[in-house]
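Troubleshooting: if your tokenizer reports a length mismatch, compare against these two reference records.
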Amino acid sequence: MDWLASHRATIDCYAMTVIFGSVRQPEFVYHGSSPLKSVKLISAMKARTLISHGCQGVKGAVTGDVGEWLY
């Protein structure tokens, strides 16, 4: 949230857009899209149950600095 606030982002969930800068004179507008196939997500508790019943799981995390992308 701090990053969004520092870049004056306005999120419009209904229109699926994120406006950076002033709403009247945006510097950049990101238009989201719906995936063609639904993304399957499960909760941590459901994952624990599945793993305890013998299912395999993979845990991962993505980190990085996106600051360079904006300038």
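Reference record two:
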Amino acid sequence: MLLDKLVASGQFDDDGVSRLIKACEPGHTEIVKTLFKREKYYELYRRRTRKSRIKTQKLDKVGREAIMLACKHGHKEIVKILLDRGKDCYKCDSSAKSPVMMIACEHGHTEIVKLLLKRGADYKNCDMNGHSSVSKACQNGHTEIVKMLLNREAVYTFGLSPVMQAFEHGHTEIVKVLLEKVDDFSTCYEVGHPTLMYACEHGHTDIVKILLDKGADCNKFDEGDKSPLNAACKNFHTEIVKMLLVRGADYNICGQRSCSPTISAFEHDHTEIIKMFLDGRTFDLPPVIQAFKHGHIEIVKILLEGVEDFSTCCEVCHLTLMYACEHGHTEIVNMLLVRGANWNKCDKRGYSPISTACEHGHIEIVKMLTDRGADLNTCDKRGHSPLIMACKHGRTEIVKRLLDGGADINRYDNDGQLPIIKACKKGNKEIVEMLLDRGADFNKYDEYGQLPLIKACKYGHTEIVKMLLDRLKDYTFGMSLVKQACKDGHTEIVNMLLDRGVECNECDENGRSSLMEACEHGHKEIVKMLLDKGADFNRSDRRGQSSLMEACEHGYEEIVKMLLDKGADFNKSDRRGMSLIMKAFEHGHTEIIELLLDKGAVNEIYVD
């Protein structure tokens, strides 16, 4: 009775899903039959909806959704009932994307597909995304359905999707079925090559063999500039690599935007694949370099098998040794040295193996090279010796090793910079102390007029400054030190220099004093320190710029107050005739203008 009432009422749920749909989804065949036996109620409902186009559309929607649900869930009997009642097997679902045939193919319901084909369902067209019934079957591995559709000449090349789906997902049986349609892949790049790439990339060995037997080109690059062998190497598909090599795949060929298969194998440490490549074959140099660069010990051992004397193999020997030294591969360096690699040979930049090891901080390699008598004073094209490289990068242990080995402590580079200048810039106290104890010349200027002490002041290395000051007999160049420390705001260093009696009123060639530098850069504590030491606050440089002008121009209000309180001249102008108020006004420093006016500065801007 309840069922009769539901059918008679013709009611729908709020979401538009009818009792019919609810019966179709779980496969309640008897309920569906009962619903359709109540023909008078069904017709009654149709008559009720004639006045309403919306309700009629809702009824059509019910029919479409019912048959689609039945196809999706494999309820053949319900599909047959619905088809007998006139439900259209050509219709699409509410998204206009999936005809009933496509739904049945996607879910692998072979008997329903047969039924739909008998009733004339469309199996050739594609949906809005380019998917066809055969592509759905290929994607999900439903071999019998694919055969059925292909026997009816279903379209399988639209967008190459069916073919690609089968290859990508490794459905070997379907691939065989599809390939029966292609006699020679060597003339079919569009189908043959991408499918081979997919199979190589995803490791589908059987499919690769089928394609190669069909004539697919194993050396053809895809749009991403990769070859099939490259794809197989990258993903470590050993059997496929072996198969491709037998078919003549080129393991040294590179694309415009991609590396060769050998480089890929070396980079990813695929030892087994590299062994295959090595079997009676020769490499281009770059892949060999990769093994030494990345420290692949086992691969290097394979490469070095049979090589007893590297002294006759200059280019390979030197490059591999340089890469091993750069990246810290101690065991590989030892292998190369045992085979006679030249540890004093330099590259095009003038870098030697020991210089490279010093730069990158590989102490064990440095020890190994020094024990073999590596030249500790050879320089690159910039004049950098191993000791300079070690000092520049703060390699304390290496510096000690080089000094113990007799490295020239006062050898300078092309810029006239000694190892101690590099160490002072880096700020490594231990290295500086070590160099000083070994007699490093700390009074020598470089090409830019810089001393080690000036470098230490510039970069704020207080302890090194103190260490160097303790060794100085006079401070005739003290102005440079104070000015540099003031400019960079190193308060502690300025205080140390002033306490040692360094003159604070000396100026450089442009008339710039230490106080001017501190005012320009806003270092308030240093300004106070200099003023307390009697710095001349009214002195001007060659442009007529005073310390107060610097503070006004850059907007340092507290420094302006400090200078005004000391009695700085607030009506002074520079060589262009710009007064303090004009400079403050030009840069929008209103508070400073008020300060100057309160002190009685001439108002050149505002008119009452």
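Descriptive notes for reference record two:
- Residues 1-88 form one domain.
- Confidence is low (pLDDT under 50) at residues 1-17, 48-60, 186-192.
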